[in-house]
Design a protein that fits this description.
The complex is a heterodimer of chains A (285) and B (135).
Chain A (H helix, E strand, L loop, with lengths): L1 E5 L7 H11 L3 E5 L7 H5 L2 E15 L9 H5 L5 E3 L3 E3 L9 H5 L5 E16 L2 E8 L7 H7 L8 E5 L6 H7 L4 E6 L3 H17 L3 E8 L5 H8 L4 E6 L2 H8 L4 H4 L1 H27 L1
Parallel strand pairs in A: 1-8, 1-9, 2-7, 2-8, 9-10, 10-11
Antiparallel strand pairs in A: 3-6, 4-5, 6-7
Helix pairs in contact in A: 1-11
Chain B lengths: L11 E6 L17 E6 L5 E5 L9 H11 L4 E4 L4 H10 L3 E3 L5 H9 L23
Parallel strand pairs in B: 1-4, 4-5
Antiparallel strand pairs in B: 1-2, 2-3
Classes of the chains: A alpha/beta (285), B alpha/beta (135).
Chain lengths: 285, 135
Amino acid sequence: MKISVLSGKGGTGKTLVSVNLARVGGETLYIDCDVEEPNGSVFLHPKVKSVTDVQVTIPEPIKDKCQGCMECVRFCKYNALAYANELLVFPELCHDCGGCIRLCRFGALGEKKRSIGRVESGRAGEVETRCGILNSGEITGVPIIKTLLRDLPSDRLIVVDCPPGSGCSVMESVKDSDFCLLVAEPTPFGLHNLQMVYELLQLLAVPCGVLINKAVPGADLVERFSIENRIPILGEIPFAREVAFLSSQGKLLVDEKEEYRRLFAGLLKALTEVAHGETAGNTER
Amino acid sequence: MIIVIKERNAVKIAVTAVGATLESEMDLRFGRAPYFILVDSDTLEFEAIDNGAAAAGGGAGIQAAQTMIDRRVEAVITGNMGPNAMQVLQSAGIPVYAGRFAVVKEVVEDFKNGKLSTLDVPNRPAHFGLKAGSR
């Protein structure tokens, strides 16, 4: 089963939830898709076993073939090309769509490989890990996320730690997920971001449930939204100094205290049940 | 009879602006300025171009610089420019001048009086205009 953990907003607790879920699940695979700011390894401390360089293809102008027709410049929606007496390529803006190369009638665009980051595969106890790392200044981490999600095992729980937001990299991360766990804070801002990712998942038709983090008695914004939209609430993590303190030490909550181990084991159980229910429901349809 | 043909030294200047007239203030940003005012330095005839690049996800400066080339602009006056836009304009041989916080008309006047200095190296990093503190 492949579960993606996401939230519209950064700092909500995606990584906290993902790493603890992966640990409590036993033999699991943890995938850090938050490639701009990967920090799952801060908690899991994996031993890196292999590193894969992630490359994209960018166009390379062949000067004597270019006629200056500018078809490619007009085609590129990412402004990675300009024509100023000669064709200029801005590699860091190129999204590797390959359109310009295919489009050129004069064969004036060759291909060139360019490294944008890497994937580190390793192990932390029973947890297998894959961490994506995007080089700074790069415009998109999608190629790294694609590499991370290639060749997935089918015999174990896979926990995908998603990037924040609801853009391209999030869509790529949740693609083919069996279930999404939405981590949300019970604040107006938290609710707003929850609504955004929820809307995205509706479009992608991926079933989901909510986990309330930094839960405070009486703050029921997220709860009300979830009930209104019939999203199952799968658990809550209390707003506690201890949680923040242990996290700041790079420790896993489930390793430190029985109370948290029970909390995450309960979450995993609830999640598995709801996800299986959804899958069964889908087959019936 | 001798006919004297007066030599015309008019330059087609583009000034980044917050509005669409000669009385609009110059915008300090290049790629993300809402308008480019194309002015004939001689006659002060002008045309305002709505900058489609202002809302681009990335590469606004590059797209704006391409517009300058396509419109056959001969000099650009703005506040800040990053390395990408600068590279495009330099390849096209279009000089960039540092304007000041004033209305377009005054900036053009400064240009005509030789009061503006050229910007030869980028004075802002790429993607600077995306940030709130760009002004």
